[in-house]
C-alpha cells in the first residue's frame, strides 16, 4: 500500500493565534518574546517584521533595531495549546492517525483512504478550507510518501499553499533546495556544510558518500545521508494522553497577594482531589505551574511518597512546592495543578494506629462526606471558607490585603494560614463571625458561634482537633471521636 502523509503547518503560529484573538493586530509587525530585557529572545516574528530584517532566535534588542515599529507580545502557551487541540480535532475527521508536532504543525496518515475520501491532495484542500473557515488560521499543506518529504514541502510552500510531491519524485524535489531545509541540519551543521565542505544544496550533500559524512559528522551522518535521499520510515504517532487530574485558573486580576494565591491553590487542589476520588485513583506525582504577568512560567514537580487523593494532605504536600514556584515579586496571572502517575490507592490500613492513622481515617471520612453532599446537592452547597472568599473570574477586582503596602508584609487571616505547615505562620485569633467562617468549614444551620479552634485539623497543618461540645457527624461517628 502506497503511503500518503499530509503535513499542515501554520507560519508564525503564536502570532497567527494572537491575530485570531485580536484582529486589530493584523498587518502590524509583531514579535513574541518572553521578556523585554537585553537577554530576551525573539521566539516568533511576523512576516511584516521579517521584511524589516527581524528573525526568530535573535536577541530582542537586535530584532527591535531592525523592526522599530514592532509590537512585543508575551507568549500565551494556554491559547496556543487550545489552538493545537482544535487543529488536531479538525484533521482527526479525515484520519484516525494524527500526530501533533507542536507549534501549529500536524501530520496525518492518509494511506488507504483514497476510495473513501479521494486523493490526498483533495483531502488537504478540504482540511485547509475547514481550518480557515472554522478557526481563522491559514495553514500551508504538503503531501508526500513520508513525514520528511511532506514536512519539507510545507517549508518550501508559500503560506496558505499546497504542494503535492508525487511518489518517485522525492529526489527531484529535494535536489535544488538549500541544505537548511532538511530537519537534521541545524545552524551549526549548516555552517560546517557551507564553510568547511562547500555543500550548499541537497544535491551536493547526496553526492557525499556515507563514510566521508561519518568522518565529518559522526553519529549524525546516517541521518543526513538518508534525508538527502528522501528516506524516512518514521510512522505517524497519535499523541498518547496519560490519565491525569488537572485543574487551572486564570485570576480575575494579576496579584502577588499570598493569601489570595493560597486560596486559589486550595481550590485547584480541591478540584483535582474530587476528580481523583471520582476515578477511584490516587496520585503518585504532582506538578504546580504559575505564569506571571510578564509571561514568565515557573513549574515544579513533586514525587509523592505514597499515593494520595485527600485534599488537605495534597495541599500540605504542595505547599512547599508553591513557595518554590511563586518566589518572584512579579504578580501572578495563572496557576495550574496536575496530578499524574495515577494508581489505585492502597487498601492496607495503618497496622499500628497512632495519631497518623487516626488523622488519615478522619480526613478520608471528611472527603467522603463532602463528595456525597456535593454529588447530591451540588458543588457549591458546601465548601471551605477560604474558597468561598475567592472571587471567580469576571466578578470584579480581587480584594486586597487590609492595611498593608506589600502583600508579604501582613497576611489576611484565611484557611490557608491554618493549613500552612507548622511554624510558617502563627495561628490567628478571629473575632468576628465572618472571619470565623473564613477559617474553616462553614458551620451548618448558619451557626456562627462555632469556635475557630476546631478548624485546621489534619495532617496538612500538623494540628490536632480539640473536642468541642457540638461535633459534626461524619459517617455516623462524631468528628474527633
Task: Provide a descriptive summary of the structure in words.
- The chain has 481 residues and is an alpha+beta fold.
- It has three domains: 160 residues, Reverse transcriptase/Diguanylate cyclase domain (Alpha-Beta Plaits, 2-Layer Sandwich); 59 residues, 5' to 3' exonuclease, C-terminal subdomain (DNA polymerase, domain 1, Orthogonal Bundle); 234 residues, Dna Ligase, domain 1.
- It contains 18 helices and 14 strands.
- A hairpin with a 4-residue loop joins strand 10 and strand 11.
- The longest helix has 24 residues.
Structural topology:
Blueprint: E1 5-9, H1 13-21, E2 30-33, E3 42-45, H2 47-51, H3 60-66, E4 71-73, H4 77-91, E5 98-100, E6 105-109, H5 114-117, H6 120-135, E7 140-144, H7 147-156, E8 162-164, H8 170-174, H9 187-196, H10 202-206, H11 210-217, H12 221-228, E9 245-255, H13 258-279, E10 282-292, E11 297-308, H14 311-325, E12 332-343, H15 354-377, H16 385-388, H17 415-419, H18 433-439, E13 473-474, E14 477-478
Q: What amount of the residues lies in strands?
A: 15-25%
Q: For this structure, what is the CATH class of the largest domain? A: Alpha Beta
Low-confidence stretches: 388-481
How many domain units?
3
CA-CA gap between termini: 70 Å
Measured as a percent range, the helix fraction is: 25-40%
Q: Given the structure, what is the number of helices?
A: 18
**CATH fold group of the largest domain:** Dna Ligase, domain 1
Mean pLDDT: 77
Structural class: alpha+beta
CATH architecture group name of the largest domain: 2-Layer Sandwich
Question: Quick one: overall form?
Answer: globular
Number of strands: 14
Taking the sheet with the most strands, its summary is: 5 strands, mixed
Q: Give, in spatial order, the strands making up the sheet with the most strands.
A: 5-6-1-7-8
The CATH superfamily title of the largest domain: DNA polymerase, Y-family, little finger domain
